[in-house]
Design a protein that fits this description.
Number of helices: 5
Strand content: under 5%
Largest sheet: none
Number of strands: 0
Helix content: over 70%
Number of domains: 1
Amino acid sequence: MLRDLFILLSGFVAGLMSGSLGIGGGVVMVPIMVLGFGFAQKLAQGTSLAAIVPISAVGAFTHFREGNVLVRPALWMGLAGAPLAALGALLAQHVPGPLLGRIFGALVILSAYRLWPLWPNRPR
């Protein structure tokens, strides 16, 4: 029961961050599943990808309704991203779980580093 509550809370946090900040919820959900619930890295990534479909659809629709979507670039990114996501998922099946976790962690750190200059009240 308590575990289900934490899983629900994780989805809430991921959805809130995804919709409000535009980050992929996997940045939140994968570490929670691996570190908090003991999921294997591949299982966490696959589960996150499946969960993000409805979360991102709702967020995208809300932003579209508010006029915050450039449709043409979104379509181009989706057309390129969908087959490459499938390819990436197939490639991930051949990478050992611990290495996949390190790659994921490195990408999260790289993303944080790249976003740091955009943080409005960061120490200078």
